[in-house]
């Protein structure tokens, strides 16, 4: 019943919204014109507002920040930060260290690393970028095929690396970023010195429901089937992009983010006493959907990956070090890390639990997260 109490008002909100007629355009990545030319004004957002929200966040950094768009061969642009320690930037030591590259998760952007960039750039250069289709990066069309959508993400990362001239990197990915970082490492292992996965999405296979009598030994295991209304709502929402509700909410979108994700405000309340972080999240995701469309293509209903990464981790080179970090309070099952370790056998694979942390480990327990990541990086050089 609790699921109904959450889904029903959201459904009503969508259906009652005057923007509902434009929901058909949510699968497109370009703004339409003509009859729906008023649609962008319905949403109180713009790339300029996103830029302002991000600038307020990045103003908290103490180290030197180099920021610009990296243009790819196809003219797509990747918004990129390069953070260096101002006290050692003129020394050769930091330049000699393997850089750390941080890849955010679904619906995120470089601003979410605000608690980590200074600490992790003390002894080595840190790069963070907005994934193609997210944040301030270009928002091209994505194919509906899971493999092609994934390949578009991976190609953009490799072209980004080439444009910056990075020979090798320590690659860290959170959630969706962890999934993509693993896929990238499988394809370009010579470019990765160590793979760090933080509460990575898309690894486990979707569990198959057990039929009656499948438990063996004469036991009966009942198949739990969700009510019809739940199936109907899941089917209905499958036609829309995951964050369509934020855009459909129009001027109420920022308030909706505050209501349903108050944790983002709490995680950064010692840095900002206002809605800076939730405004940032809103503006990241109220733009025309692009990477979100790619994610939808790669996922099944309820967020399972169509191509679970546990089926491919054996393709990682046996010598590739992999560190898997999980929040002890996260919805992501840390047991998946143990499964990966078993699959990889004697290959260097470690699984660590960060206490008192949920899915956003880096923001829930930043000091412990930074300590663990720095320790991992120091094993490289």
UniProtKB/TrEMBL annotation:
<dbReference type="GO" id="GO:0006654">
    <property type="term" value="P:phosphatidic acid biosynthetic process"/>
</dbReference>
<dbReference type="GO" id="GO:0055088">
    <property type="term" value="P:lipid homeostasis"/>
</dbReference>
<dbReference type="GO" id="GO:0016042">
    <property type="term" value="P:lipid catabolic process"/>
</dbReference>
<keyword id="KW-0378">Hydrolase</keyword>
<keyword id="KW-0443">Lipid metabolism</keyword>
<dbReference type="GO" id="GO:0005739">
    <property type="term" value="C:mitochondrion"/>
</dbReference>
<comment type="function">
    <text>Lysophospholipase selective for N-acyl phosphatidylethanolamine (NAPE). Contributes to the biosynthesis of N-acyl ethanolamines, including the endocannabinoid anandamide by hydrolyzing the sn-1 and sn-2 acyl chains from N-acyl phosphatidylethanolamine (NAPE) generating glycerophospho-N-acyl ethanolamine (GP-NAE), an intermediate for N-acyl ethanolamine biosynthesis. Hydrolyzes substrates bearing saturated, monounsaturated, polyunsaturated N-acyl chains.</text>
</comment>
<dbReference type="GO" id="GO:0004622">
    <property type="term" value="F:phosphatidylcholine lysophospholipase activity"/>
</dbReference>
<feature type="domain" description="AB hydrolase-1">
    <location>
        <begin position="99"/>
        <end position="202"/>
    </location>
</feature>
<feature type="signal peptide">
    <location>
        <begin position="1"/>
        <end position="21"/>
    </location>
</feature>
<dbReference type="GO" id="GO:0042171">
    <property type="term" value="F:lysophosphatidic acid acyltransferase activity"/>
</dbReference>
<dbReference type="Pfam" id="PF00561">
    <property type="entry name" value="Abhydrolase_1"/>
</dbReference>
<dbReference type="GO" id="GO:0005811">
    <property type="term" value="C:lipid droplet"/>
</dbReference>
<dbReference type="InterPro" id="IPR000073">
    <property type="entry name" value="AB_hydrolase_1"/>
</dbReference>
<comment type="similarity">
    <text>Belongs to the peptidase S33 family. ABHD4/ABHD5 subfamily.</text>
</comment>
<keyword id="KW-0442">Lipid degradation</keyword>
<protein>
    <recommendedName>
        <fullName>(Lyso)-N-acylphosphatidylethanolamine lipase</fullName>
    </recommendedName>
</protein>
<keyword id="KW-0732">Signal</keyword>
